[in-house]
């Protein structure tokens, strides 16, 4: 460099569609107290008047194609600069303060070791908010500025100090150093090139300083999405994240590279999940695409280029290792605080609405509430004890847990089979297309195994804990859901909402349905789960009546997911939903004639109905394919399904082990009385219409008999009984609200007979939850530990070692007929019972059993071993004729049994290892992938919307 060029500065402005900012940028350059010696402008295919503005201000403008990257544009400008010592880089959306260049050059003179210097960046147009005062990068790729979000500039960071990097907007760089470092990397076309350059400079032993006395105002047009270029398009987040990953992977020390790759891969997956949870699928896809887009060959080439340019330690310039974890804690704290603030805002809005609805009542009540709050400040115990409703709710929950005490530990009995040893058995059953059960079967696993497997995984991999959790928490979860649903309906019917005592009665009366109906005592896992899901589904479905189309679509996604969960446990619920959706659309079309032509009117119910079909595709399609379509009308649990008679249905009972039927009939009487109050007659009639449709569907299904492997069974109507009872409880609550509204509107005292009648109704209504709760606390149930059906323990242990070591259990007699079942593993567990119950009989195995008990031949042992049979058991009381035939059969050796009345034989040949091998299926993986994709999309659509904040990646 010549003596003439020493100390000279060339300002290099790169522009692309920047006409909206360029007038102020030009004015800022002209107003510099130390003007640059040269101004070089490069335009990358602008379609606005930006090039004309630059040409009028500074002369000729170097033009480049629209797809030119920032590193290439800087190189083009560098060729036009001439003999200078310093390059001052400016963007077309960054305007310098009048003394910015002077302050940078003064710092360079005071610190001759510095090769890169950067100003303090403030937000444009606010002018006071800080953006950057130097920048570094964390181990997760986050751009770290050390600033609080929205922090204002009050001189608190005005200290010249060494940093890892400074932003290219306003960067003053020594030309010799810039060329020695190779300039900006072409692999970083828009974002991240400043961090990469600063890291390479620090590794080469060069110094980067931030000079806060120099100020540049930056609009961050590309980062904020204000401007789109051919290099960023719509995927700004993709470019930013890719730049961050590239910068880390090519500059990190070789000894930490494997750990860095693992950390960034796992971190990307977690970030994808986080974006999906907040309904930001675009950012989630950008995250994943950024990781996949990195080519190992390009990364290795970039690392080789950097390896020959010094190896100074830059660790002290990087962000501390713990900083990402602190950000995570801050995020969690922010979410919790936001939820608390939102809840407080909702409570305040309700308080204001209550005051506006009834000013006098609110004013009279207000001093008491203030006194209560002051007294409650002494602690949460005082607040809790001062609220009778909270105390009663707590008592209900505690008593329900006492009533469900049999579920503390392994639960089995009645319709509930034992849980498998681990949740892995459920995952295997759900994923495989061929099950080594019985004689081997391709009948698909029941759909409820997926949510149960997810729950068991969350509970530490224990299937027993998952079953116990459903049985234990059925009443509390139902109570919570019913409280939310009835509270919402009360606010829709009356501006005042439901009185809390009425809300308490309705929630408790419904929450006890799994116990009072007898479903809990019979071990009907599907019904118990359905009771818990139903009010949440109804709460979501209320959103179909929302006037805003977006809210209706959101309600459709949530209703569809919850309906799929309900159908997984009780498939008949889909038929009821189909009928109700048809009636609802028809009613809407009658009230609003053009509703049928609007997709936002019929689309949400259609989506809610169609979503379970897609989410449960791996179940219903193979069920039809493998002659197990009867499962579409059956629920979870052992067969046969319960078939209550007319009186049981009316009382909401499944027959046996339910609370006294008269308590259920009281609900019917109260629901009829609920038709009397005029203010709520229409919503009560709607509840009765729902109940009538449910009763009609129950009647139709009661005529259906299904032939399955275990014999004949009626269709499962248990969930319909639950819906019937829930509709009547809702009718009672809304009718009582109507009576309260009448009383409030009346200015005359109520006659004594009427007052006595209402008191009597209140006493009768109180009996429903009181009797139900007391009955559940000490009621009867069939949840007891079961034995192995007479099979000796050592045989069960052998069968548990491998599926081909089956036990052929024979029952019956020669005169009445001999039946059989093949037992494998440690017995039939939850989920396997439905598979076996729907699997068609194997004719070849039936013929083999007939030969064994009537005319055994020399090939009997070989045939049994090839079918995976190790033992034959005739449980007590063993039929003598069958036992004598088996005693004489060749290849069967008598075996011991604990019970002398039980007879057992061992097959002389070892079972064939491939006895249970079945055909594979390409369809199963496809259906599972469709289910997974649909589930992810549905959950994303159900989540609350959050605008994605761009706080990471390089800014330009």
Describe this structure in words.
The protein is α/β, with parallel strands linked by helices. It has 3 domains: 9-321, Spore Coat Polysaccharide Biosynthesis Protein SpsA, Chain A (Alpha-Beta Complex); 326-371; 388-422 and 462-778, no CATH class. It is 53% helix and 10% strand. Strand 2 (38-44), helix 2 and strand 3 form a beta-alpha-beta unit. Strands 1, 2, 3, 4, 5, 6, 7, 10, 11 and 12 form a 10-stranded mixed β-sheet that branches. It has a 5-stranded mixed β-sheet with strand order 16-15-17-19-18, with helices on both faces. It comes from Nocardioides marinus. Keywords: Membrane, Transferase, Transmembrane, Transmembrane helix.
Produce a short descriptive summary:
Keywords: Membrane, Transferase, Transmembrane, Transmembrane helix. The chain crosses the membrane at residues 389-408, 458-482, 502-520, 527-545, 565-589, 601-621, 654-675, 682-704, 716-737, 758-777. With 956 residues, the protein is an alpha/beta fold.
- Poorly predicted ranges (pLDDT <50, ≥5 residues)? 359-379, 947-954
Into which percentage range does the β-strand content fall?
5-15%
What structural category do the secondary elements indicate? alpha/beta
Count of runs of 4 or more consecutive helical residues: 35
Helix content: 40-55%
Protein name: GT2 family glycosyltransferase
GO molecular function, one term: transferase activity
Organism: Nocardioides marinus
Transmembrane segments: 389-408, 458-482, 502-520, 527-545, 565-589, 601-621, 654-675, 682-704, 716-737, 758-777
